[in-house]
């Protein structure tokens, strides 16, 4: 493939805020353009109404309303096609935080229709692979996160880390040909779309769990999801390997935002250092005269080396949030894109020879040549000479040497093995003769000693002995290699058997796991903490371990928390959709069974009709005798078959959607639990703080407040007061609807035993210490959360008083 520039696309995120003045023109012949109009600063003394325009060129610009499907069709599909053809491909999203990078690459975490480039590309790749029976394909997946210039394996199956730093670190290794290898990054084989999707969700969930409030890694880290595709023709020794990197970069946000006034659009500095290095590499690549490209400055640029100015078909998506506030960031993003567009890449077909396959092919060739030779010469030749043949040859050589006639020849026939053997016999004899002579010269005094008859005979004897021993040695060597081969085969067979056995048991455990999915939750309510087990080809990965049972209060708080969580509506929607789709799938399956029965019935009728006609003797001149009934039956069968096929297709589509929805729900569950723990920890530390400051800050008993200690600034959380669910007259409805989500796992912080608090100090957040913190708090009456309901408030105050009495008696209160 010839050199080609990196393609750049622009995507604008929908917004509810006032948008900046901009225009998109996709009709131009040379690509598309995006133009921003910036009101000129009037603060510099004289007022003018001139406006400044910034125009940028893109391959195509996708405006606010463009859907994920269109993004996939335009951007990802061509890259996926080239990956299938054996070239490397990369798609990376670049833009400020919140501009839609993750939405574009992975997709929205809530809705099926929002799935992004990764799941759609996986679906497309596996579909194409399954259609191509002329090639054998294998696919592997890896998922790397780079944070603070350190690589972490998001697919590590032993993953129980609560912090990113606890994941195994990935190292960069460079071989002598300067190829980059990543040590500790696992490559997981994934045979189908479902397995690949599971891996994607596993990685994303690991990432979410590892992220704590103190470590908001997701906006500052880069994620590289890679599909490693290998394909070959059956029997061929050449392999084509290609890689597809799907990259979600860290936010390209810059410091010293100057806003629309002042020195607008002077380039500010990146917050993220590795993006700075990425820009350095891109500047170097776009300058023709530069010979050194500083790839090694950061892990990101090392990993993406091939994708930038190397062997890759690369596409960039510049994501922009173009509300007025973000105009300068959007312009920075466009400027970066313009530089990227200057880079030329040279994709080459990644073909290589597989040594094992090559040896196998050569062996086959040797065998067929031998057969051919045997056919031509009329005799079967073994690799080696037999003992009898060797004996005959020795005799022949002896006679040849003994004959004094100078014209005597040694005729051996057209057999290289015999010719070579005679030569080696002669060589041994000569060497032996030399050796003896030298031996005489060195060790004895007779320099002119001649070779006696006896000597010749002895040397011939020796030569024969050496030849015999050599022969034996080769035979033993052969035996050994045959035995080793047998041993290997035996080992493979045992492994196969073990794998089959594992498959069988996995199949069983899979179905039993599916069945038990619903029933795991009640168990959890009782304090068992095994949550989300994503099954990956039989390996069950547990993200969290068992923890101590939770107090009733916390359980109750959790139930209310989820009822009012901002994701609740989406979860509800997804559940309904899930039910609906499952019902649809059930109906389709019934239809399939019906269609199948109808076809069988029709076939029977057809058969009967034919028999009847044969019995009536019409069959003899069937060509003239056109039978309407038979014709109709055939047509009917065809129709039913078409319906059957289309139903199968629809069912397949539904299955993918159902699986995806399941994963979405699973993830929502983890997110809820994480948010709850985050909030709970914050609340606990708030109580401590308010104690030390002896000024009630957290949830003062505001008369129109609520008993629930909700903090409005908790991420992903709606205040109960504004939430319609808060006033839900029938709380049972929403409670029962989230029955799956109601059990609380131990927080990652609890698992780790400690968590870093904002000031860097390590604060202990184990449940007992939280409780101690709450218990030891002096509750001034103003800091007691009250409901506004007289009866309830009186109960609360009575309880608090009783508790204080109890504590002072037991000496717990100091
Ligand atoms: P980034 O990864 O660039 O920081 P996100 O992809 O997380 O940004 O997007 C921020 C928010 O905006 C998310 O809630 C996401 O769902 C939403 N969003 C982004 N792009 C779109 C879009 N094209 N359509 C609808 N919602 C979007
Ligand atoms: Mg993101």
List the helices and strands and how they pair.
Blueprint: E1 4-5, E2 7-12, E3 21-25, E4 32-39, E5 51-58, E6 60-62, H1 68-84, E7 89-94, H2 101-105, H3 117-131, E8 136-147, E9 150-153, E10 169-174, E11 180-183, E12 188-189, H4 193-210, H5 217-220, E13 222-232, E14 238-248, H6 273-286, H7 299-303, E15 313-320, H8 327-340, E16 344-345, E17 351-353, H9 355-377, H10 387-402, H11 416-443, H12 453-516, H13 520-525, E18 533-536, E19 539-542, H14 552-563, H15 568-615, H16 628-693, H17 731-737, H18 748-752, E20 755-756, E21 762-763, H19 767-775, H20 790-810
Helix pairs in contact: 1-3, 3-4, 4-16, 10-11, 11-12, 15-16, 16-19
The structure holds adenosine-5'-diphosphate and magnesium ion (MG).
Radius of gyration: 39 Å
Structural class: alpha+beta
- Distance linking N and C termini: 78 Å
How many strand elements? 21
Strand content: 5-15%
In which range does the helix fraction lie? 40-55%
Overall 3D form = extended
Integer average pLDDT? 75
Give the count of helical stretches. Answer: 20
Assembly level: single chain
Ligands and ions found? adenosine-5'-diphosphate, magnesium ion
**Would you identify the regions where 5 or more consecutive residues have pLDDT less than 50?**
42-47, 257-265, 443-451, 507-548, 696-781
- Main beta-sheet strand count, sense and barrel state: 12 strands, mixed
Q: What can you tell me about this protein's structure?
A:
This protein has 814 residues and is of the alpha+beta class. The protein contains 20 helices and 21 strands. The strands form five sheets. Strands 2, 6, 7, 8, 9, 10, 11, 12, 13, 14, 15 and 17 form a twelve-stranded mixed β-sheet that branches. A three-stranded antiparallel β-sheet has the order 3-4-5, covered by helices on one side. The chain has a two-stranded antiparallel sheet with strand order 1-16. A hairpin with a 2-residue loop joins strand 8 and strand 9. Helix 1 packs across helix 3 and helix 3 packs antiparallel against helix 4. The longest helix is centred in the C-terminal third of the chain and has 66 residues. The radius of gyration is 39 Å and the shape is extended. About 19% of the residues have low confidence. The site of magnesium ion has 4 residues, from helix 2.
């Amino acid at each position: 493939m010839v050199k080609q520039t990196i393609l750049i696309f622009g995507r604008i995120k929908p917004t509810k805020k006032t948008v900046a003045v901009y225009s998109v023109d996709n009709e131009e012949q040379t690509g598309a353009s995006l133009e921003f109009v910036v009101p000129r600063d009037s603060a510099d003394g004289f007022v003018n109404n001139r406006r400044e325009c910034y125009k940028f060129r893109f391959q195509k610009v996708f405006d606010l309303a463009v859907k994920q499907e269109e993004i996939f069709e335009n951007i990802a599909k061509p890259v996926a096609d080239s990956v299938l053809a054996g070239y490397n491909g990369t798609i990376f999203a670049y833009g400020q935080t919140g501009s839609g990078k993750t939405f574009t690459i992975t997709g929205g975490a809530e809705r099926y229709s929002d799935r992004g480039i990764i799941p759609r590309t996986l679906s497309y790749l596996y579909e194409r692979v399954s259609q191509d029976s002329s090639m054998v394909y294998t696919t592997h997946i890896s998922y790397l996160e780079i944070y603070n210039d350190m690589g972490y394996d998001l697919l590590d199956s032993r993953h129980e880390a609560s912090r990113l730093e606890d994941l195994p670190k990935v190292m960069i290794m460079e071989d002598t040909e300067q190829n980059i290898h990543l040590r500790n990054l696992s490559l997981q084989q994934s045979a189908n779309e479902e397995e690949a999707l599971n891996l994607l969700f596993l990685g994303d969930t690991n990432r979410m769990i590892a992220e704590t409030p103190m470590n908001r890694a997701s906006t500052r880290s880069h994620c590289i999801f890679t599909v490693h595709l290998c394909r070959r023709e059956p029997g061929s020794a050449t392999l084509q390997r290609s890689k597809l990197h799907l990259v979600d970069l860290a936010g390209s946000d810059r410091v010293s935002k100057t806003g629309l006034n002042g020195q607008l659009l002077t380039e500010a500095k990146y917050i993220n250092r590795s993006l700075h290095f990425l820009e350095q590499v891109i500047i170097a690549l776009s300058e023709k005269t530069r010979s050194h490209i500083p790839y090694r400055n950061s892990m990101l640029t090392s990993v993406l080396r091939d994708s930038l100015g190397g062997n890759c078909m690369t596409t960039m998506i510049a994501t922009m949030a173009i509300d007025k506030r973000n105009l300068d960031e959007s312009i920075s993003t466009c400027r970066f894109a313009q530089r990227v567009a200057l880079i030329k890449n040279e994709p080459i077909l990644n073909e290589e020879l597989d040594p094992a396959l090559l040896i196998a092919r050569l062996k086959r060739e040797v065998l067929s040549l031998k057969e051919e030779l045997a056919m031509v010469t009329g005799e079967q030749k073994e690799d080696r000479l037999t003992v009898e043949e060797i004996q005959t040859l020795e005799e022949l050589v002896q006679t040849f040497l003994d004959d004094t006639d100078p014209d005597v020849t040694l005729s051996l026939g057209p057999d290289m093995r015999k010719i070579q053997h005679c030569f080696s016999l002669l060589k041994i004899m000569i060497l032996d003769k030399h050796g003896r002579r030298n031996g005489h010269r060195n060790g004895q005094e007779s320099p002119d000693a001649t070779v006696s008859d006896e000597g010749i005979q002895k040397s011939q004897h020796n030569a024969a002995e050496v030849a015999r021993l050599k022969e034996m040695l080769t035979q033993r060597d052969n035996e050994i290699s045959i035995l080793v081969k047998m041993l290997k085969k035996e080992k493979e067979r045992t492994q196969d058997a073990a794998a089959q056995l594992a498959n069988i048991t996995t199949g069983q455990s899979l179905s039993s796991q599916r069945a038990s999915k619903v029933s795991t939750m009640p168990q959890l309510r009782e304090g068992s903490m095994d949550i989300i087990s994503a099954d990956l080809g039989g390996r069950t990965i547990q993200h969290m371990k068992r923890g101590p049972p939770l107090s009733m209060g916390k359980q109750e708080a959790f139930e209310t928390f989820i009822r009012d969580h901002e994701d609740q509506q989406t979860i509800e929607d997804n559940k309904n959709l899930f039910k609906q789709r499952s019902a649809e799938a059930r109906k389709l399956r019934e239809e399939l069974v019906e269609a199948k029965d109808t076809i069988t019935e029709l076939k029977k009728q057809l058969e009967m009709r034919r028999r009847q006609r044969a019995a009536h003797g019409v069959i003899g001149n069937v060509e003239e005798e056109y039978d309407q009934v038979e014709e109709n039956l055939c047509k009917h069968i065809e129709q039913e078959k078409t319906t059957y096929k289309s139903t199968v297709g629809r069912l397949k589509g539904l299955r993918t959607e159902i699986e995806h929805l399941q994963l979405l729900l699973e993830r929502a569950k983890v997110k809820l639990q994480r948010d709850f723990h985050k909030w709970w920890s914050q609340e606990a530390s708030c109580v401590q703080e308010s104690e030390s400051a002896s000024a009630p800050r957290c949830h003062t008993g505001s008369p129109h407040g609520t008993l629930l200690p909700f903090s409005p600034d908790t991420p992903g959380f709606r205040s109960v007061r504004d939430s319609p669910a808060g006033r839900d007259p029938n709380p049972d409805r929403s409670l029962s609807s989230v029955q799956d989500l109601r059990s609380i796992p131990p927080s990652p912080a609890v698992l780790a035993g400690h968590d870093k608090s904002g000031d860097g100090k390590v604060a202990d957040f184990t449940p007992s210490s939280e409780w101690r913190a709450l218990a030891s708090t002096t509750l001034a009456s103003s800091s007691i959360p009250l409901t506004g309901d007289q009866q309830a408030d009186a109960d609360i105050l009575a309880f608090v008083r009783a508790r204080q009495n109890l504590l002072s008696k037991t000496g717990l209160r100091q």
